[in-house]
Amino acid sequence: GEKGLDREIALVKASAGSTEDSYTVALGANILHATGDYVGARQLMDKLARSQDAAGGVKGAVTSITRSGGDALAIETTALSVLAWMREPSYAAHVEKGLKWIVESNKSGRFGSTQSTILALRSIVAYDAAHARPKAPGRIVLTVDGRTVGSPLAFTVNTQGALVLPEFASKLGPGNHSVGLKMEDGSSMPFSISVKYHSTLPNSAGEARVGIQVALKDPQIQEGGVTEAIVSIANKSDQEIPTPVAIVGIPGGLEVRHDQLKELVKSGKIDAYEVIGREVVLYWRYLKAKDNFDLPLSLVAAVPGSYTGPASRAYLYYTDEYKNWAPGLKVSISPR
To answer: For 129-179, how does the pLDDT look when each residue is reduced to its tens digit (9 = 90+)?
Structure first.
């Protein structure tokens, strides 16, 4: 590795040893072990072990190098802790609990933000490499509320790719349900489950720090006319917040004006934007404490008809589990 970093490593050791920020401690544990300071690394690993809760997550992180928070920060910290603990066999129990917590934190095929997903996958890959074992033929049984769904899914030592289980959405009526997987013969293997549903207006999170409201200036407009969606953004906290994002749903039949969006960037009212399908994604580097403002999005009525757009939402990029939602806009466009 890189040479001549003794001063930097000493600073890391001092910082990790004097702080209760688990993210910094986890970084330090990995660095010290990688550079041969095994005694110092084990002291930091002990601090991380004391911060691990009963579910397996490592608590106490303050922030990360990307200023993440919420679930993303907890996943990053736990993944770094697992990577550190895997360097020492005596922490095997902490590794098992931590990895189980990481796997269960998967939502929609990812583990929070980009950074937390990368670290989560690194810990999972490292764990799998350390625990590789030959496969054995077997069957997987899917149950819903204790009842078997479909036929057991058989596999052999030559089976490749994902094992796709029977569809069971029809078994999930109103109320709580228990979905189970049982292995017959075979050997242990990783698995994931994703549940997708549709809501025209999801519930906003109480922890969300970015507020959003969207109103259409002209709910009724003639084809070829120009209107505006007024986007109201608010920092609900008394602190500066990093990397806020607003996604504005645009009803069908209306087209955004890219020249106007570029002017918003040029004037500094937004830092960047994307247009993805029927949604305009607005980015800022930060919002000042208690900041609030209105932003006009110019829209052209292109196709006659009655339309309802997707719900709009606002959140912090690195804590996207906490969103504020606004109802989808409605418009009626009459032909010329």
So the answer is: 887 555 688 899 999 999 999 999 888 888 877 788 888 888 988 899 999
Tokens of 270: 């937004």
Domains of the chain: 6-130 (1.50.10.20), 138-185 (no CATH), 210-334 (2.60.40.690)
Percent of the chain as helix, strand, coil, to the nearest 5? 30, 30, 40
Closest CA to 38 of 46, 92, 124: 46
Among 73-77, 104-108, 316-320, the least confident range: 104-108
Residue 191: per-residue pLDDT: 65
CA–CA dist 192, 187 (Å, integer): 16
Query: Of 266, 213, 276, 209, whose CA–CA distance to 243 is shortest?
Result: 209
What stretch of H or E contains 125? helix 114-130
Most confident residue range from 59-68, 112-121, 301-310: 301-310
Instruction: Tell me the average pLDDT across 91-97.
Output: 92
What is the tally of helices (H) and strands (E) in the chain?
7, 18
170 secondary structure, DSSP code: G
Q: Are 32 and 12 in contact (CB under 8 A)?
A: yes
Residues 6+ apart with CB under 8 A from 262: none
**Exposed, middle or buried: residue 234 (CB in 10 Å: 0-12, 13-18, 19+)?**
middle
R_g (Cα) of the chain, nearest Å: 25
E strand intervals along the chain = 138-144, 147-148, 153-155, 179-185, 210-216, 220-222, 226-235, 241-242, 244-249, 254-256, 272-276, 279-283, 286-287, 292-301, 305-308, 312-316, 319-326, 330-334
Q: Supply 184's token pair.
A: 């017959």
Give the mean model confidence (pLDDT) for residues 261-282: 97
Percent of the chain topping pLDDT 70? 96
